[in-house]
Amino acid sequence: MVTKLFPVTATLLLLCVPVVAQSPLSAAPLDAAAAQEAAGERSPVVAGLLQAALPPLPLGYAYVGDLGRGLLPTGLMVGGATLLLVGAVDIVDWTEEDKSAVPIYLGLGALIGGYVFGIVDVIGAAKDRNARARAAPGPVRLLPTARGLEVVARVSTR
After folding, report:
1. Under a CB-based contact definition with an 8 Å cutoff, are residues 140 and 153 in contact?
2. Among 57-61, 62-66, 93-97, which stretch is predicted with the lowest mean pLDDT?
3. Three-class SS of residue 142?
4. In angstroms, rounded to a whole number, what is the distance separating the alpha carbons of residues 31 and 52?
5. CA 143/CA 122 separation, integer angstroms
6. Helix, strand or coil, per DSSP, at residue 143
7. What gap in Å lies between CA 76 and CA 126, rounded to an integer?
8. Residue 127 and residue 131: Cα distance in Å, rounded?
């Protein structure tokens, strides 16, 4: 039964999906100002996902364009990992007695804290960048219109 329905379902999907996707009813009207604002902005979700993907590397901060701000969470994570490894090696070394697990706990706290702080902070950095981009647009902007691209220049009278 399932093998008989698969070709029918696949055929219907192949025929219907492109038509619905290209339908003029599904397309939103072109808003030139919104398109221009979106061009210089960075998505906070993409920045957070980039930062979460490879935590020691400040990829989210590089995407936002604020790489210097990403040095603090990167330093926290590298320092925490170092403390964690030093504490683990110290505990595994059985030549001495009275081992303390404090470096392990401090390292784990710094590692997890740097990871969470990096994700939250890069989302804030993306929102800050977007607010600055909306507040002060450049003197010359390209606006997409129905006829193509138009150049709009802003002239200050100060």
Report:
1. yes
2. 93-97
3. strand
4. 33
5. 29
6. strand
7. 21
8. 6
